[in-house]
Amino acid sequence: SSGGGDGTPTGANSNSNSSGGGDSERWTHRFERLRLNKASPATLRVELASVRREGLLNYIVADDGSGGGSRTRWQKCRLLLRKAGKGEGEGYLLEFYIPPKATKPRVSIACSCVMDVRTTTPLEMPDKENTFVLKLSSSLEYILETVDSLQMRSWLADIQECMGLG
User: Fold this and answer.
1) H or E stretch at 85
2) Edge-to-edge strands of the sheet including 92-97?
3) What global pTM score does this model have?
4) Which CATH architecture has domain 53-64+71-164?
5) For residues 88 and 159, is the Cβ–Cβ distance under 8 A?
6) How do residues 111-143 score in pLDDT, each as one tens digit?
7) Nearest-CA neighbor of 120 among 145, 86, 89?
């Protein structure tokens, strides 16, 4: 029989356990250093302070040059309206995080590039309520859908205000 028969570990086992403690301490120290390097608290603080509005919305892109008829399907995104940081220019940015849990925005739009933001007409969106259009200087249009009319009006007001700020 290997071991003491009373459940005590063999000599090889106890050796690996005692050295394992040291390895695990070194590993956690390494992990802690990595975690601190990856997201410095200073940048996180700036980001949180600069966020003006954030929410989950559905959107589609309506491109003027697409020729009509071809409707793309609605996608879920996390929309973030925030003050531009150092090196990002002046004013505010609208960032689309797709999927919503993404850590980096897939689309980032300067509010100064937004030509118009308005509610959609029943003709434009007969089957959807609480939708608004974001018209860009590049002739791209984003149609966004919120959960209710209050959210839609809040997004409209905030985006319109930020358009005037740069």
Assistant:
1) none
2) 107-110, 92-97, 75-83, 51-63, 140-145, 131-136, 114-119
3) 0.68
4) Roll (2.30)
5) no
6) 999 999 999 999 999 999 999 999 999 999 999
7) 145
